[in-house]
Amino acid sequence: MKTMSIASLLLTTALTFAVTGVASAQDKTVKIGALSDQSGLYADLGGPGSTLAAQMAIEDSGLAAKGWKIDLISGDHQNKPDIGTAIARQWFDVDKVDIIVDVPNSGVALAVNNVVKEKNGVYINSGAATSDLTNAQCSPNTVHWTYDTYMLAHTTGQALVKAGGDTWFFLTADYAFGAALERDTTAVIAANGGKVVGSVKHPLNTPDFSSFLLQAQASKAKIIGLANAGGDTTNTIKQAAEFGIVKGGQKLAALLLFLTDVKAIGLETAQGLNFTETFYWDMNDKTRAFSKRFAEKMKSNAPPTMVQAGVYAGVRHYFKALEALGGNPHDGAKVVEKMKSMPTEDDLFGKGEIQPNGRTIHNAYLFEVKKPSESKGPWDFYKLVGTVPGDQAFTPLSESKCALLKK
Amino acid sequence: MTALTDDRLPAPPRAIRDEMIVFVVMALLLAAVPFSGIYPFFVMQALCFALLACAFNLLIGYGGLLSFGHAMFMGTAGYCSAHALKVWALPPELGILVGIAAAFGLSLITGFISIRRQGIYFSMITLALSQLLYFIYLQAPFTHGEDGIQGIPQGRMFGVFDLTKPTVLYYVVLVSFLAGFLLIYRIINSPFGEVLKAIRENEPRAISLGYRTDQYKFLAFVLSGTLAGFAGSLKVFVAQNASLTDVHWSMSGEVVLMTLVGGLGTIFGPVVGAFAIIAMQQYLASFGQWVTVIQGSIFVICVLTFRRGVIGEIAHYLRRSL
Amino acid sequence: MQALYAQLLVGLINGSFYALLSLGLAVIFGMLNIINFAHGAVYMMGAFAAYFLLNLGGINYWWALLLAPIIVGIFGMILERTMLQWLTGLDHLYGLLLTFGIALIVQGVFQNYFGSSGLPYAIPDQLKGGMNLGFMFLPVYRGWVVIFSLVVCIATWFLIEKTRLGAYLRAATENPTLVRAFGVNVPRMITLTYGLGVGLAALAGVLSAPINQVRPLMGADLIIVVFAVVVIGGMGSIMGSIITGFALGVIEGMTKYFYPEASNTVVFVLMVLVLLVKPTGLTGRAA
Predict the structure, then answer these.
(1) What is the rounded average pLDDT of the residues B270-294?
(2) Which residues of chain C have a CB within 8 Å of the CB of A233?
(3) Both A8 and A137 in a single domain?
């Protein structure tokens, strides 16, 4: 995959050189940096797939034919804020990058957020969960696409309580992310007339959840909410199946789960699980067409995750803003302002908008994992349970603590 | 027990002259960096790690104790400095002091516990202690867990030096590094350092000569930990964040690797090693996934064929002490 | 009170992994005098071996229990022959550094090819389902893990402490030259011992594959806990490391019930306490 994308990159570059032989009045060069976790925990949901998504956005935009010269580089932040900021700084200082995309891992995402603001670049985050990016730590240079903790908690919490899941027990990862998820979901549950009967905090990266699951089982709650992520979530789900929790009548609600996680768990174990995403490859003809092209270029033939889809959509919208500006002003805040002034619309997320705090608003969907018997293909995993319109799913502007809103 | 480093020819006056020449050359080269077009941010980062590796080397190269948890001192100092700068809004010099004090306190406690066992046990204990701290920092509210402390103000050092200017920051970091380096050099060549080397070579003999070896090792541990804390505090100004990465065991492993590559028990080795490893991480970043594999391979190659490290080999070849 | 029984039992399951891993470390340490930092990596390789045997060779769990440790054990013996044996006579710390490097390589390579999300491995049909013990619902597979590990641990103890081969082993640890004089091939014994220790870790990996995801980093953090277990128990005695392994699993299980926030740290805190009271560890001789 790597060599192929490099080859195609060279090809595009060569083409753009050929086309932009004549210097235009407006600067039409753009350099995009896809900063992601290329080998760790988030590599499958972002990683090389996000670079590919950005690459496809460049190709699909057709800008090369209009005289633009667009470069793409990628970097591996290895989930270390240090390395992330070092790469970001170097990209701005040395490589003259205009825009950084993706950046999963909240810690790295927030660190990079500061660098982009300092260097006046553009930052389209798709991979990180923290709602702080558009809340307390919002920046005039940042657009947060795809999802955040507030949205996950609200959509899942609200939909399940309304469907009758009115008693909850939380298994919460014992750090800021887990606490935020639990806090937000609890508020939604209470607001919709449900009740939280108990919760247990588990350490991050625990291999064994049996103790916690036994406590959840004993609580007799109808819904067991998993306020954790990544390996912790998949392990909880697997082990819950072993302890017969779902068979015993309790439902699991994963607050953060990705397509690749479901693949790793397997339908046999994951069936019946509820969770929220903002993109699924099998939503409509447009998403299917994109996903087919995407999967053909992936080494694993995997369709895009919502994070990768967010990178694609974000980059496309960024190009629209640049085109509207008639060239690249190399002024991040100005470009982001333009992006906010235009409604978003693309094949993957449909219609939406970017709020003044940088939050992109689009539909959110509650999914349920199919039974193995219902699945017709290797990635046919979800069925749609409910749709929540963007303005109800994401933080209302009245609740946002973003300083940009006070002006 | 065989010594970790091979015996070199003892030639004190000439050795010290050689070392001072190399030191001056190194200082001049580093001082010229801002004029050379080399990306200064990268050099600053490397300098912080170089200081950390030198501190670590004090313990293993001269005390024979392999700490596999040195990241905990760097991380602790980093968090405390960051907190002091951001929340208490202290000036930079006091922020650094807070970090150093925290590392000092931590090294007193961890030293007291770990120095009770020798050899491999010592390594395992320091590793376990740093993992314990990792989990504590993951949960403690002031570290902000996974998010880390972000956007740390750099401020004005002594009210004069504006650290937000890259060049000023660079020279402040460079001077701090050189000061730390000279301090370590001084320690190594002091009577205390000589006793330490004697203990490393033959502990029972040192005991029979009447030295309380445990106290010497404890002191070496505290010095090393505190200096590692200094490196951690400096790093806060460069990276402008403090995160869990700095307390994770893989960071401790990287420090070991830097020192091993440069040469255990050599004076300049850790500096060379730190620059080599940081440069490797930078320039191989596009290979992403393979960086850990390459690091592992360097470990294996060094241990099997290259135990003296770069500087150690050069020193051995020139029959000089470096 | 019922919940407490359940937690005790659950603690024993984790204890089984600690016991198997610290037992392997102790066996290797006894013979080679090195701490095998690659132990977490070979544990992971065991799980992956089971995964490959099933998915590429169609070989089921039961055969994997036998074959995976052998395959990984052979890998270990190759490592010992090509690398570790060159370190004899050098400071023990070099063994630690070398195996740390090996761990990085192995984990890095696996991460490259299999990502980090983990691969599923199903519980064998014969061990699916659970039993209602009155105070808890015990998945059959977990019960199997406890019993099987206990059997393996005791068998290893018997092999080393009670058989002729074990007697050679112990003698070779004390005085290799003398044992060689009796016509025993000591280097070969060292290689086999390393293979045995590594095989035990791989066996633990196979056992854990259906419970945890098969992930490249599954052993990376676990090994540090096991190090603490080993420091607490001391590596002087085989039985000591088995008992400490199980005991710490149970204590950790209790912590998860009474104060879950501390369950990650309890083993390390215990290590500190033990070091303060008895620096040589509970059963260990001076290092």
Answers:
(1) 84
(2) none
(3) yes
DSSP A183-215: HHHHHHHHHTT-EEEEEEEE-TT-S--HHHHHH
CB contact under 8 A, C91 and B116: no
pTM of the model: 0.85
Q: Which of B41, B49, B143, B146 to mutate to test the interface with A (most CBs of A within 10 A)?
A: B146
Is residue A301 exposed (0-12), middle (13-18) or buried (19+ Cβ within 10 Å)?
exposed
The verdict on C231 touching B (C-beta cutoff 8 Å) is yes
By the CB < 8 Å criterion, does B41 face chain A?
Answer: yes
Distance from the Cα of C154 to chain B's closest Cα (Å) equals: 25
Cross-chain residue pair B146–A176, CB shorter than 8 Å = yes
CA-CA distances (angstroms) from residue C281 to A304, A379, B11? 52, 52, 43
Q: Convert the pLDDT of each residue in A159-174 to its tens digit.
A: 899 888 899 999 998 8
Residue that has been written with the tokens 């004549």 in this structure: A22
CATH, residue A204: 3.40.50.2300
Q: Do B118 and C287 touch (CB under 8 A)?
A: yes
Domain contains A399? no
Query: What pLDDT, on the 0 to 100 scale, is given for residue B1?
Result: 39
Interfacial residues of B (vs C; Cβ cutoff 8 Å): 1-4, 60, 66, 68, 113-114, 116-121, 123-125, 127-129, 131-132, 135-136, 139, 249, 253, 256, 260, 289-293, 295-300, 302-304, 307
C131 pLDDT band (50/70/90 cuts)? confident
The range of the structural domain enclosing residue A353 comes to: 2-147+283-362
DSSP per-residue letters across chain C: -HHHHHHHHHHHHHHHHHHHHHHHHHHHHHHH----TTHHHHHHHHHHHHHHHHHTT---HHHHHHHHHHHHHHHHHHHHHHTGGGGTTS-HHHHHHHHHHHHHHHHHHHHHHHTTT-B--PPPGGG-SEEE-SS-EEEHHHHHHHHHHHHHHHHHHHHHHHSHHHHHHHHHHH-HHHHHHTT--HHHHHHHHHHHHHHHHHHHHHHHTTTS-B-TTTTTTHHHHHHHHHHHH-SS-HHHHHHHHHHHHHHHHHHHHH-GGGTTTHHHHHHHHHHHH-TT-SSPPP-
A2-16, A99-113, A374-388, B113-127: lowest mean pLDDT where?
A2-16
Examine the domain organization and report whether A42 and A156 are in the same domain.
no
Question: Is this prediction's ipTM beyond 0.90?
Answer: no
Contacts of C103 in chain B (CB under 8 A): 296
Residues of chain C in contact with residue A230, where contact means CB-CB under 8 angstroms, are 117
Q: Where are the domains of chain B?
A: 12-248
Q: Which residue has the higher pLDDT, B2 or C201?
A: C201
Same structural domain for residues A138 and A159?
A: no
Are residue A109 and residue A185 in the same domain, yes or no? no
- Condensed to tens digits (0 to 9), the pLDDT of residues A221-259 reads 999 999 998 878 988 998 898 888 888 889 999 999 999
Task: Identify all chain C residues contacting B260, using CB atoms and an 8 Å cutoff.
Answer: 97
Q: How far apart are CA A215 and CA A172, in angstroms?
A: 13
pLDDT at site C281 = 76
Q: Which residues pair with C13 in a beta bridge?
A: none
